[in-house]
Amino acid sequence: MLFAIEEINNSTDLLPGISLGYKIYDACASIARGVRVTLALANGNEDISAPSEVPCTRPVQVQAILGVTSSSPCMAISTVIGPFHIPLISHFATCACLSDKTKYPSFLRTIPSDYYQSRALAQLVKHFGWTWVGAIRTNDDYGNNGMATFTEVAQQLGICLEYSVPFFRTDPPDKIQKIIDIIKASTSKVIVAFLANMDMDVLIHQFSHNNLTGYQWVGSEGWIVDSQIAAMDKHHILDGAIGLSIPKAHVSGMREFMMDVKPLNTSTNELFTEFWEALFSCKFKQSSAGNERECTGHEDVTQVQNSFTDMSLMPIFYNIYKGVYAVAHALHSILSCNRTCNNNVQLDPFKILQHIKKVNFKTKEGDEVYFNENGDPAAKYEIINWQPSENGIVDFVTVGLYDASLPADKHMNLHNKSLFWAQNSQQVPVSVCSEKCPPGTRKVLQKGKPVCCYDCLRCAEGEISNTTDSITCIRCDPEFCYANFDEGWTEVRYKRNQRRNRDWDQGGGDGPREGTANLQFRSGHGFFSLHLT
User: Measured in whole angstroms, how far is the alpha carbon of residue 407 from the centre of its chain?
Assistant: First the structure.
């Protein structure tokens, strides 16, 4: 956010002569804390920091709020500020419920709605033939809504869920053990995990202790490219995971800006102190306790290897960047900026919200930014596969793309790349409740089980089925066929007459001919052959 603000304030093209101010809060993923600071901002009870010493020429009034990361706090905050029309632009809250403008009229986001992600995950599961899967979801609005949509679409695609369990990072150990027991007792080999990274962070430790290997994981964007989770997966529980992520991004100059964070080191910047202490595992003098190493404030950020410095979070950073620029372009339009801006225009949140909804611009990297009628951007995802590397660190390899703006039959495009699966196998896992029923049998659903679970019963004497997964056997018409049964075989002989010649002889012949057709198959093994005489 600070990088974008600095760029805009130094620009002569966007908001010339206008400086944007800011105030940063850490909501700590807390709904209560998020609502509290939002109310303080809306009421004008907080000082807004400016990136320069030049005093603000306008009264302190928040024009827009950027954040927060999670869906549930966004829902609460949007409910509070919606009546005041204060724009809230999130970079990572994906719950489809937030697209409801009757409930959240001032909410917008720069990350796609889970309306698309849930459908994409279901199509991904279907693509690999997995019709019998388990599911774990974060027990909040993000996980529950996302999994509800996935379940609905999966059922339409013929996919059954053996189990679907909720989990939240604060759940007691016995709840985690219950989830582990459910997974171990299951017969499905694929687990769809619609989880926030903090929840997967907790689960992966417990899964490792219980050696929960051999399962194929399908992940949501919340954790599938989290390098910290990959580093913690010492027992290779998640090897071969596949899932969806925000497309990779690059913003020129951002990495250099982030590596040069020392100018933020001021006595009033509590956020910097907390960040610096966590990054270098040290304590500043005023907060030093015990035998912990003392921070100097001059540590070298470039020598640290983590998700902050390796830029794996750049797609999320880019979403924040686009949100700041959306506000700037809206203000640029309201203030009728050209070489200068009209400072006499009275700003109000409703006017700013309406202009943000209409923005359509390209970033300096060439990416188009706009919002649809629900305040959502275009839905595009990369399909990611966890693959082993030579140094033992997981590589997040892009193996395909999902673009919801394309025609339905072109939404998913898998690249011609070799994929790695559970336990780094190169063989696609099989996860079905029942194998297909061969010709000569019919499908009978197992009582009390989902439709994906059935038995294959052999056709009764005098009946046949000649298609896979037939739900009925048809009786042989004595005028045209009869059936002979012996051990493991069924022979059906069809008599031909003038009326049937058109069926057997395509495109001609010398007229009606008598003859027979033998149809043979081995019950239970799918063997099928057709003999004409």
Answer: 20
